[in-house]
Amino acid sequence: MGDTTITTTTEPEIRKGLAGVYADYTAVSKVNAETNSLLYRGYPVQELAANCSFEQVAYLLWHGELPTATQLEELQHVERSFRSLDPEIKQVIDILPTSAHPMDVLRTAVSAIGALDPHADDSSVESNLAKSVQLLAQIPAVVAYDQRRRHGLDIIEPNDELSYAENFLYVTFGEVPDKVVVDAFNVSLILYAEHSFNASTFTARVITSTLSDLYSAVVGGIGALKGPLHGGANEAVMHIFDEIGTADKAADWLAGALAEKRKIMGFGHRVYKNGDSRVPTMKASLDTLVEYYQRPDLAELYDNLEEAMTGGKNIKPNLDYPSGPAYHLMGFDTPTFTPLFVAARITGWTAHIMEQLAANSLIRPLSAYNGVDERHLER
Ligand SMILES: CC(=O)SCCNC(=O)CCNC(=O)[C@H](O)C(C)(C)COP(=O)(O)OP(=O)(O)OC[C@H]1O[C@@H](n2cnc3c(N)ncnc32)[C@H](O)[C@@H]1OP(=O)(O)O
Ligand SMILES: O=C([O-])CC(=O)C(=O)O
């Protein structure tokens, strides 16, 4: 018998939420709560955010090394060639109500992209890499298409002269904003790209472990990311800011919310208990945006809520806390924030899908039964 033999005499150790459990190895990234650091393929994420484009980081996550100039050019060429949405995908989006949450629209669109791909079930590395680049290129088109149709605006076709970040902003807003905005967006994408066995990546790996296809794993990842305890928190932060109103009300609002045992979105983390390694970098980008858009009121509200939360419960902000207001300042509407997280995390998810396939083992833990004792039908 293998090591999954169930012994009924000893009480199994249950780790709720798999907290503290090592499920497998990964070479994609290292989250170190003790040193408060995050490495992508060995590189500190802060260094990557300060010096690289999101496309370079995507390549790094997929291939394990940063691209040479030629490799980057090739990636950019392919990514730019996939940016337009097929008419069938536009039709699929169009039949969804504009009241549908953008995460539901994106999940549906990715599922449709998979159903239209005749090679969906080809799980070779070459095919999965090609699918990963295609999804990288098309997610911005879906997100922008949906935000614009919700606001009754004309759809803007992509511009393949532009970088990934520039084009994303262009197809959403109809113009490329100033460099300070593009840079902040690029930084946010890099910071959101990868974070080891978080809930959505683990979901994608579980699906992959059954030898299902890459699209199914990504659709599952999107579903897991939508929840407010995970990616949905960046949207929820903005709802909290709206609820609080002005900076002077932050402390009282927090006292009331904590008294009602509410979870304060954008704070806390399963792994980092002493602050999220990515927050200082994203906060610096938020500061540049606050300055650029002249919104000291938003910065004051941000600071006051953080001060009240760290002073009271000593729970620190996670990446969603600075990202939410940063995306708001850039002009994205609030329900679009979590799809922006998807646009970045598609790189990490697909890197993990390929890693899982390279050394696969079906992910299937045990459960300890605590239902009624064995019983029988009365006949
Ligand atoms: C990019 C990301 O996905 S980062 C995560 C984004 N999610 C959020 O911001 C949602 C808000 N945060 C949370 O709900 C949690 O901090 C989680 C889900 C992220 C992590 O949760 P866990 O590791 O399970 O921590 P847990 O829930 O056990 O919290 C420990 C204690 O801190 C409290 N706590 C943790 N986070 C918060 C919070 N944001 N607001 C209020 N209390 C909190 C818990 O209530 C608990 O208190 P207790 O011991 O008195 O019961
Ligand atoms: O690691 C986690 O649990 C959540 C997170 O911060 C991420 O996915 O970026």
Automatic annotation (TrEMBL):
Belongs to the citrate synthase family. The active site is at H269, D320. One of its GO terms (biological process) is carbohydrate metabolic process. The keyword Protease does not apply. Gene3D superfamilies: Citrate Synthase, domain 1, Cytochrome P450-Terp, domain 2. This is Citrate synthase. Keywords: Transferase, Tricarboxylic acid cycle. The lineage of its organism: Bacteria, Bacillati, Actinomycetota, Actinomycetes, Micrococcales. It catalyses: oxaloacetate + acetyl-CoA + H2O = citrate + CoA + H(+). Pathway: Carbohydrate metabolism; tricarboxylic acid cycle. GO terms for cellular component: cytosol. The keyword Transcription does not apply. GO terms for molecular function: citrate synthase activity.
